[in-house]
Amino acid sequence: MTVMTSEALWTEVLDQTAPSDQVPSDQAPCATGHPVAGELTHLLFEGARRERSHGTWRGMISGPEFAYRPGLSPTERASLSYDRLRLLNKCLDDPEHFAADPHRLAALHEWIGPVDGGLTTLASIHYNLFLGSLVDHDREGRDLSAFTSLQRTGTFLCTELEHGNDVAAMETVAIFDRTSGGFYLHTPTPGAQKFMPNTSLTGGPKTAVVAARLIVDNEDQGVFLFLTPLSDHTGHLPGVKVRRLPERTGTPVDHSLTSFDHKWLPREALLEAEHGRLDHEGTLTSSLGNKRKRFLRSINRVTMGKLCMSAGTLGMTRAALTIAVRYAHSRLIAGPKSGERMPIAAHRSHHSRLLDGLATAYAMTFLHRTVVDRFAEHTEEDREEVERLSAVAKGWITWQARAITTECRERCGAQGLFPANGISDLSANIEGGITAEGDNLVIWVKAASEMVFGHQSAKPDTLPPGDLTDLPFLQGLLAQVESIWQARARTALREGPSGDPVGRWNVTSAAALEMVSAHARLQAANAFASAAERAVDPQARFLLRSLCRLFLLRQIREHTGDLLAEGHLTPDQVRALPPALDAVVADLAPHMLTLVDAFDFPAEMLSAIPIASGGSIARTMEREEELVGASC
Fold it and tell me: 426: which of 132, 148, 316, 565 fits an S-S bond (Cβ 3.0–4.6 Å)?
């Protein structure tokens, strides 16, 4: 008897399971190739930059190496992510240049996010936080070939066990040794252990960029980065202690606790740039006046990390919607007549929720494009504004991603619970994006505190005349929402208890966070509306305008009371809002497949997902049993 492995069985089953398991093949969802979907794709994926930024990664995930692998243990899944990282690296002509290109770096995360959450984490750490930090600092005489060839995987050690949200208070020290000219890297307390980078022996030899306080003659010079070898092929190096953490939610990664016991580092381990250089006499020169600014400049790659995290969750969102919409058109239920069968997508209660997700996903995508463009072009003058915008966008995009993928999983019913159907793991992987590179609530609180008085809302002096079908009118309403909550936050801060900073912020924070939320949604709506106007094909423009209107109407519905009270909406307009929503949903419902086809996932990827290709887990299992019998 010849016994096939579960992986081989799965591959053959997918190859042989017809896409007509539940619906006739002439009705099964498939990539339309329609020019409308093509133009939508062009607009969604950066137009002329599409092939350069996205083409490599789209092609890569279509290969069998990135298909679902059943039956792997957590350790094997973590190792697989490292194997895929090496395959990914082979696609790069110049990893150093890649790490310095925000558009290509973000695009990578959009495509690998849906297929391997662990790989998304590893790629973000290696290419952005690690290699990017090296590229951003002085590079003269520094050989990066071991990292660009992935002979050594890079990792990034910043947050500590007791210093996450207050990472600026970290305790790890790098003590300048005048005798050797190098440094002694040390973890002084248990709470100073670095938490929770991928520093185990899984994946091969590793080197870290470690954030630590530079101590010169017992004086704290602030936090800088130090290039630190952690392990080789025989194990961890002397002075390095690593303990693997328990499994977390989402795709497994070898997260660990890492500490240092007076580990000596050579002089060149210190990463230097204009924000801080140490001469051989131990004198620090810096273009920045205080330790906090030097710290933020040292870890400035965290801002690009926010864009990488939001990009990964953006790709997961589009994948969840693609799977759920395609399944909704092949999943048949009883119709109104005896013996009649109809797709569940025909029901408003089903397709309206998916269309809400589609509208938001398009808004998320266009917002992300705008923010990455701003980041790529920013100067010293607008650095703080762009960093804040990146934080606001990251919070909003990742939170929306979680909500949409959860909704999509539910709309797929029990089929959505099986990892082979490509959707069940997405929400758990998005949780990592919500927390990584700055916990969403924390970075929003920081943005809120800056925006109460340091930001001027974009509300028009007077709303242009319009109605609920008019995009500029709806955008103006959303701008008014931001202004209303900013005014409330300012009033609360002024009138809060004097002499009690925490008390004053406590009475301000709720309104200030609502202001940030409205700001994020307004920026997304404006980016969406601008993209709609760039559409050349009339049908594509109609779909984008309608989808943008759906997005805006959903946002405004939450604030009709305030808008009515402030005189920006009339009672008749409030009453007209529900039927307006229903009308735009009805207009869009026949075009759902076109809207997800525009997300441009490879046919090879979708054909390997049973419910995305007209099949089901049950039918796949039947074919597996048939193949087992045939192999005996």
Answer: 316
